[in-house]
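Morning run. Coffee first, then this:
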Amino acid sequence: MDEEYDVIVLGTGLKECILSGLLSVEGLKVLHMDRNDYYGGDSTSLNLNQLWKRFRGSEKPPETLGASRDYNIDMIPKFMMANGALVRVLIRTSVTKYLNFKAVDGSFVYNKSKIYKVPSNDVEALKSPLMGLFEKRRARKFFVFVQDYNENEPKTHEGMDLKAVTAKTVISKYGLDDNTLDFIGHALALYKDDSYLEQPAIDFVKKVKMYAESLARFQGGSPYIYPLYGLGELPQGFARLSAVYGGTYMLNKPQCKVEFDGDGKATGVTSEGETAKCKKVVCDPSYLPDKVKKVGKVARAICLMSHPLPNTGGAHSVQIILPQKQIKHKSDMYVFCCSYSHNVVPKGKYIAFVTTEAETDNPEAELKPGIDLLGPVEEIFFDTYDRYEPTNLDASDNCFISTSFDATTHFESTVHDVIAMYKRITGKDLDLSVDLSAASAAEE
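And here it is:
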């Protein structure tokens, strides 16, 4: 271990593993360490026995749930946008060869105490029961504008500079009402609150456009894909990538202590009496607790069931987004459901997660709007975890710390953090220009 590295990465959570792989491909000499003896960190995947041990101590799961080994339950489950940045990273790095993907059956939104399929283009807008006749016509015009929009062709801009006008201005131009705005902003553009309305509209329009393009990729019922056997293989896939490019991995390394020089810059990491020197340290918040601050808390329910979610047409995998206004919360709530069709539970079984940014100390009451959508639940586990963000200036101390995973059940915010960290570490933009048709071969 007494060598010098360009980067030492601490923790094998998903963000850290993606960065380890990307930095190795970039030609940097990487050492990756974890205090645990398994991959995944907070985003690890558990079998049934491990789930029971974690949440109920030594109690054994009921035999009616089937064999423990047939469960691969991701602790931070997130669907991938088929046309999104993470899929581009997977293709660019060829990590797709370690995974097989399957389209997610349904994308739904909660509106006026019911759930509806999310319309994402002009044709679906005209069919959607979410809107009345005149609102459908207005929504159709908006979707046609989004579908035709090309940043480099002014004739598609409808006289608007989307880098100057706000999202609210664009919405106003098409006269869309608050209910329509709710599902477009939260279930298509995937914003977590309404602050985007005061921001330049370019990001908003690009997000809605990407949703529609992702939906068209596999002609499925949603824009999302998810790996067979869950996300557990994803950190290991990037670990393999790092190893192919010369990265070194060390699990079960206790007390990884970051060393600093007199100027407060990271110079290496010490574990078990040995110090590895480095120019930069990348880690999750748990490794440098004095350089992060608590910014929130996620409440979640993990539910085991023997049926698909009601009112989803028997879908085996779905995401439902409950916009904040619909449930009188400050932030959105998310329902993630997956089943034996993705090989994460035995045949006939389903697993659902209900998550939101915690606003009280009572997750059971807070998560009720989402849990009420599930139908009968056989087993339910309630949990909360704190969210942290870095407070340091990484240019000053050479420590690059990821943010904790949020309550969303999709990867958009996660991968944006990774891309931003990559740029700060390398000084370069991550090239995501890839042939997305290559992903189709990885989809089952």
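The CA atoms of residues 11 and 34 lie 5 Å apart. Good start to the day.
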